[in-house]
């Protein structure tokens, strides 16, 4: 049987590839279950120090599968139940994972597929990729965290326009408005992604986890609370072997070797 989520491990990097290219990797139950299992495995595997999420073929992800997920006869359906069962746990899981996730947006990212990309830590698109908050086109509103992530990355004015107009923006426009962090040519895209992923995997894991925790918390905290959190996390990092190694390597003018201790 074809795997809907391909899983590869290259050194300390786990690569998850959505694999329904004929449907632009639209999210059906096989992809949803595959992602849940893949992230559960990553959570439990200390060997994995960075994650790449990408798509097979010309799409990253076209959002909910409108052919199999949504009631084929039309009519009312409890979309909240499906969000509770799949989208919300996935987004929560990605954000809570104490390891960096690169979303490598290789092509079309629409609906929940666009917001799945925004749930990652470092969002990088190929030149031919594009992004659409497609929900409005079918009478829905952004879910999978879109109304949270978008205003924070592109600002309130752009977020409202993107969500309400449902227009497609190019990867270049996404970079210009701050929705993504980097843009690479299509040719050699995954090589460039893997270079960054390996570089992340070589960084001190506790420091990466602390950065992620602090940035996650920053969305809903006061400056006072955030200053306290930074102090608490930095205090813990001060006791790690990787901090000692980083300082020793600086003094000895050699590259640091971080072990995650
Ligand atoms: O319970 C719940 O799950 C509710 C949650 C909802 C969250 C959501 O994500 S709602 C938004 C769902 N997504 C969309 O509305 C996007 C639908 N797709 C499109 O608008 C277009 O396909 C794209 C703009 C993404 C790309 O257009 P284009 O011209 O590059 O490709 P295409 O020809 O439309 O699609 C290629 C194939 O993929 C095509 O199949 P075919 O005709 O060649 O056999 C198309 O049907 C299929 N496909 C694309 N998107 C989906 C899909 N099949 C199922 N579900 C899709 N979302």
Through-space gap between termini: 40 Å
Q: Which architecture of the largest domain would the CATH scheme give at its second level?
A: Alpha-Beta Complex
Overall pLDDT score: 96
Strand-pairing-aware structural class: alpha/beta
Helix content: 40-55%
Compressed to H and E, one letter per element, the order equals EEHEEHEEHEEHHEHEHHHH
Q: How many structural domains are formed by the residues?
A: 2
Report the CATH C-level class of the largest domain.
Alpha Beta
Beta-strand proportion: 15-25%
Q: Total helix count? A: 10
Shape: globular
CATH superfamily of the largest domain: 2-enoyl-CoA Hydratase, Chain A, domain 1
- How are the strands ordered across the major sheet? 1-2-3-5-7-10
CATH topology of the largest domain: 2-enoyl-CoA Hydratase, Chain A, domain 1
Number of strands: 10
Bound molecules: ligand T3D
Largest sheet: 6 strands, mixed
Written account of the structure:
With 261 residues, the chain is α/β, with parallel strands linked by helices. The chain has two domains: 5-201, 2-enoyl-CoA Hydratase, Chain A, domain 1 (Alpha-Beta Complex), CATH 3.90.226; 205-252, Orthogonal Bundle (Lyase 2-enoyl-coa Hydratase, Chain  A, domain 2), CATH 1.10.12. 46% of the residues lie in helices and 16% in strands. It contains ten helices and ten strands. Strand 2, helix 1 and strand 3 form a beta-alpha-beta unit. The mean pLDDT is 96. It binds ligand T3D. Residues 23-24, 26, 62-67, 69, 79, 82, 108, 110-112, 132, 134-135, 137-138, 140, 143 line the site of ligand T3D.
């Amino acid at each position: 049987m074809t795997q809907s989520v391909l899983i590869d491990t290259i050194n300390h990097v786990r690569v998850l590839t959505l694999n329904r290219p004929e449907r632009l990797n639209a999210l059906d139950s096989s992809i949803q279950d595959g992602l849940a299992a893949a992230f559960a495995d990553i959570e439990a595997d200390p060997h994995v120090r960075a994650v790449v999420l990408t798509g097979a073929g010309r799409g990253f992800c076209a959002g909910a599968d409108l052919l199999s997920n949504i009631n084929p006869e039309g009519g009312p359906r409890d979309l909240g139940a499906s969000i509770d069962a799949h989208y919300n746990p996935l987004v929560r899981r990605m954000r809570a994972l104490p390891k960096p996730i690169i979303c490598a947006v290789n092509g079309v990212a629409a609906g929940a597929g666009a917001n799945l990309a925004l749930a990652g830590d470092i969002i990088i698109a190929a030149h031919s990729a594009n992004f659409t908050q497609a929900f409005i086109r079918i009478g829905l509103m952004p879910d999978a965290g879109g109304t949270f992530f978008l205003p924070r990355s592109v600002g309130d004015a752009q977020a409202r326009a993107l969500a309400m107009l449902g227009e497609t923006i190019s990867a270049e426009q996404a970079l210009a408005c701050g929705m993504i962090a980097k843009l690479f040519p299509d040719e050699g895209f995954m090589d460039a992604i893997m270079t960054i992923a390996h570089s992340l995997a070589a960084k001190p894991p506790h420091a990466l986890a602390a950065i992620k925790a602090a940035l996650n918390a920053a969305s809903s905290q006061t400056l006072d609370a955030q200053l306290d959190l930074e102090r608490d996390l930095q205090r813990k990092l001060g006791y790690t072997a990787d901090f000692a190694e980083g300082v020793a390597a600086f003094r000895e003018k050699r590259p640091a070797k971080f072990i995650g201790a």
